[in-house]
Structure formats: structure tokens, C-alpha cells
From TrEMBL:
Residues 335-344 have a biased composition (Basic and acidic residues). The lineage of its organism: Eukaryota, Metazoa, Chordata, Craniata, Vertebrata. Transmembrane segments: none annotated. It comes from Dipodomys ordii. This is Clavesin-1. GO terms for molecular function: phosphatidylinositol-3,5-bisphosphate binding. The gene is Clvs1. The keyword Membrane applies. InterPro entries: CRAL-TRIO_dom (IPR001251), CRAL-TRIO_dom_sf (IPR036865), CRAL/TRIO_N_dom (IPR011074), CRAL/TRIO_N_dom_sf (IPR036273). It is found in: Cytoplasmic vesicle, Clathrin-coated vesicle; Early endosome membrane; Golgi apparatus, trans-Golgi network membrane. Required for normal morphology of late endosomes and/or lysosomes in neurons. Binds phosphatidylinositol 3,5-bisphosphate (PtdIns(3,5)P2).
Amino acid sequence: MGPVSLPPKQQKLTTQKGDLAKMTHLQAGLSPETIEKARLELNENPDVLHQDIQQVRDMIITRPDIGFLRTDDAFILRFLRARKFHQADAFRLLAQYFQYRQLNLDMFKNFKADDPGIKRALIDGFPGVLENRDHYGRKILLLFAANWDQSRNSFTDILRAILLSLEVLIEDPELQINGFILIIDWSNFSFKQASKLTPSILKLAIEGLQDSFPARFGGVHFVNQPWYIHALYTLIKPFLKDKTRKRIFLHGNNLNSLHQLIHPEFLPSEFGGTLPPYDMGTWARTLLGPDYSDENDYTHTSYNAMHVKHTSSNLERECSPKPMKRSQSVVEAGTLKHEEKGENENTQPLLALD
């Protein structure tokens, strides 16, 4: 007896069920809360996930000038999530992702953690990545700007290390939906260091992070920024989208305003949080594994040793070789600076971004 043919209606139903089963694996591992968040905030609908992905994939033919090196379902899905399932916007981001890599080939040669330049940047704490997420499920990235030793790390290698870190983190579907927070501590970042942040390299960073990467950034927070960082903003402002500008916050020394947006229980003590001081080697050890060698590669004093807190519990640290002063970043419990008249403008978004 030959194979039994199903009626057309049942065949269609079976195909639909198969497509749904195929697509639900893309949401495997997501908590029910995150799935609901994706539905409400990102317009993600598991019933039409396959169609959404295929619509983006069908647009690839319109850009023969770009080499789309990866087009699988899971990869395209992260671009849809980054653009709230607007297919045209998601495709535009996908195209910019690969075009950025084509235009900056040297940045992506040997694009892995054991590349010497990337490895040095990682070991020096660029970026820092906190183990736990905030109350919205967002991953918190840290940049301690003063740790940039310009004789050791080029800005390009620091940017490469940040982009590589994001590539690793964005593999997590929860982070594709919940997104990221970036905190930049400008304590002791000198005018000389700032002078190396030219418009061209800042534009390179903005294009790589804002325009060409499928990550949702819920906020970029500046703390302890000097006046010349404000001046730098005037240089980068033309390159920022309105939406991005709305998500940049200048807190100055007022950590209370930071804590209104990121609760202290999710922050290390450098930012007035309740967690221990951040260990600069944490993320480097995660990416480098056995290749991580603090003794052989890291010639600077660790951040923990560099920071000076004038309390009796830190006398031993204060007696160690002279550290880099980072005391603006850390405050004792109950001594956070309250907002004063005239500080309000520093804690507001630089501009409104949507």
C-alpha cells in the first residue's frame, strides 16, 4: 500500500504546526516573563516568527554589494528584536552590520579574544562586565576611562574588545530582549587622554555600536565626568541619533541620580553600590580561560589596589605602593552626595532620544 495523502486542509495545518515547532526553539530557555516582555515591548509573535525572519532574509538580494556572511534564523532574529520587529529597519541594521565589517577589515582580522591587542584591552578591564543583571534583566557593562594606558592599548583595540564582548553576550536571547546598560567612570581621566579621542575615532565607535550592532542599550551613564568630557559631547552630537541622545545621562558626582535608574544592589562599591569592588580580570578570565595570564600580561596595578578609600578597613591597601586615586567613584554608605541646585542639568539625558 502506498503512502496515505492527507487532505489539503490537514496538510496545511500540519505544516503550520511544524513551522511553529521549528520556531519555538528560538525562544527556548527564555523565561515566561521575558517571552511576555518580547511580545509587549518588541512585538514578537511566535506564530509568525518564521515569516518575519524570512521577510528580512528576502531583502538580502537588494544589497548585492554586501557580503551577508551569516543568515540563519537565530542570527536574523537578534536584528528583528533590536528593531522591534520592523522588518525594513531590521534589514537595514543587518546590512550595516556587515557593511561596517567590510569597510573596517583590519578591525576584524583575528577577531577573537587571544588576539594580542584585544587580549591586552580585556586584561586592562575594557570592558568590565558585571556578573548579575539589573532589575530589568539588563547586562551592565563598565568602562573605567582612566585605565586607558595609551602606550599599551590603542583606542581601536579597546573598541574591538568591546565589540567582541558584545558578540559573545548577544548570543544570549535574554539579553537580545532585555538589553544592556553602559556605565563610564571618568574619574581621573586626564585632558591629555581626552585629547586622543578625535572625531574620527569617536565616529568609528558610534558607527560600530549605535548603527551597526543588534543590541538594545537602555542607558549610557557618565559619572565623575570633567568639563572636557562635556566638550567632547559637542563633537559627537552630530553623529548621535535622537534616540541615543535620550539615553545618555550625565550624573557628575551625584550618584543618587544613578541609583534612581540602577539600584545600588546591582552596582559595585565604585558606584556607591552594595557589591564588592569590581575585579578587572573577571570578564577577561571568562573570555580567555586558560589563556588568561594576569602576571605575564598585566603590568598595571589592579583597579582594586588603585582605588583609595579613607576608612580604617582599607589601611592595608593605602599602605601598598602608591595607587591611582579613584576616590570620586566610591562613597561610603549614607554619604552619597545629594542633588544640589545647578546639578540637575548634569543628570538629565544629554538630549532626548526616543
